[in-house]
Specification:
By secondary structure, this protein is an alpha/beta fold. It has 14 helices and ten strands. It has helices at 22-32, 90-94, 99-105, 121-126, 142-148, 174-187, 189-199, 226-233, 242-248, 253-264, 268-286, 291-297, 303-314, 318-330, and strands spanning 10-15, 44-49, 55-58, 64-67, 79-82, 113-117, 134-135, 153-154, 160-162, 166-169. It has a six-stranded mixed β-sheet. Strand 7 (134-135), helix 5 and strand 8 (153-154) form a beta-alpha-beta unit. The longest helix has 19 residues, at 268-286. The two termini are 14 Å apart. The model is unreliable at 1-5 and 213-221 (pLDDT under 50).
């Protein structure tokens, strides 16, 4: 990855296909170009290319966009992102690349990081990048996608999946979650959070796609779990039991458990772990507190417990995480 101390920023190339969604096309540019180091230097460069020579690309709106680069730009990418398109043709119908798209993808260098937003995942799948790997897409398309590409382990419940050098995301706004995650992975939570603030979006959304699937509208007179979550966020350093959360909303544990999952998309226990991991990341990046102290302040109790949770959620130990992102912050 290019870092703030290198001579050039990390290059993100966005592949614009006919029928693209303008909103999704703009997400990588909006997120990555706002990421800067403490000296104000750009951490990423974003360029847009087509499968054809420079020129117009049709969108799903009532206008076209002029794309300034041809497929050769893919050869210069450190990361390639494929947004959704509503005109994938044979790619969507039978999972095969058009000769034009196959020729464009041939420019991608081995080792380049790849990412997709929504139905952009069809491009990565048809090119063979996802065989035997986990992936996601919009919940409404997940069954069809799984049937077309049985070698891929499709998870329709998550907002995005990070499988190292290949990342996939759900529909539309999940592209924001994905790009912010990439910034966080590359440069730490502080920079990603600043980008999120400037974009006026949450730096990390709770839950998965389950919360966006159509359900009968709940009775507006019924209480929510918002107050319990707010209460818990101020007390992550303390032991928090499910019955404590339910009591904050004057609900039975059973009712609270059901309501929480309906609203957030995951269980209360999973949500608490997510929040504690995020707090640990911030403390490891921004303070010199001993690992044992960080573990206590985040509610993990012991350094060993925190190590297990970070290893499971981030794939690194607390010491390795601090070494990586404290060094980045000081560059």
């Amino acid at each position: 990855m290019a870092s703030s101390g290198e001579s050039r920023p990390h290059r993100v190339v966005v592949l614009a296909l006919d029928g693209l969604l303008p909103f999704e096309l703009g997400i990588p540019h909006r997120i990555f170009t706002r990421a800067r180091d403490e000296h104000g230097r750009a951490l990423y460069e974003v360029v847009t290319c087509s499968v054809r020579p420079p020129g117009p690309v049709v969108t799903d709106a009532d206008f076209t966009v002029h794309v300034p680069h041809g497929p050769e730009a893919l050869a210069t990418a450190d990361t390639v992102i494929v947004p959704a398109s509503y005109e994938l043709g044979p790619l969507y119908d039978d999972g095969t690349l058009t000769p034009e798209l196959a020729a464009a993808l041939a420019h991608v260098r081995p080792g380049t990081r790849l990412a997709s937003i929504c139905t952009g995942v069809y491009v990565l799948a048809a090119a063979g990048y996802l065989d035997g790997r986990p992936a996601t897409t919009h919940w409404s398309d997940a069954d069809r996608f799984q049937g077309m590409f049985p070698a891929i382990r499709v998870d329709p419940d998550v907002l995005f999946i990070d499988d190292g050098d290949v990342l996939t995301s759900a529909g539309v706004a999940a592209g924001l979650d994905l790009c912010l995650h990439i910034v966080r992975r590359d440069h730490g939570a502080a920079i990603a959070n600043e980008v999120a603030r400037r974009t006026v979006v949450p730096p990390h959304r709770d839950g998965g796609q389950a919360q966006y699937i159509h359900r009968p509208v709940p009775d507006p007179q019924l209480a929510t779990t918002t107050a319990a979550r707010t209460w818990a966020l101020a007390r992550l350093h303390e032991p928090i039991q499910l019955r404590d959360l339910a009591a904050r909303e004057a609900m039975s544990v059973r009712t609270f458990t059901r309501r929480f999952r309906e609203e957030v998309g995951i269980s209360a226990g999973q949500w608490l772990t997510q929040q504690r991991v995020e707090l640990a990341r911030r403390l490891l990046e921004s303070t010199d507190l001993p690992i044992d102290r960080v573990a206590r302040d985040c509610g993990f109790g012991t350094a060993q417990s925190m190590r297990q949770h970070l290893q499971q959620n981030l794939g690194v130990t607390p010491t390795a995480y601090r070494r990586t992102f404290r060094a980045t912050a000081r560059t």
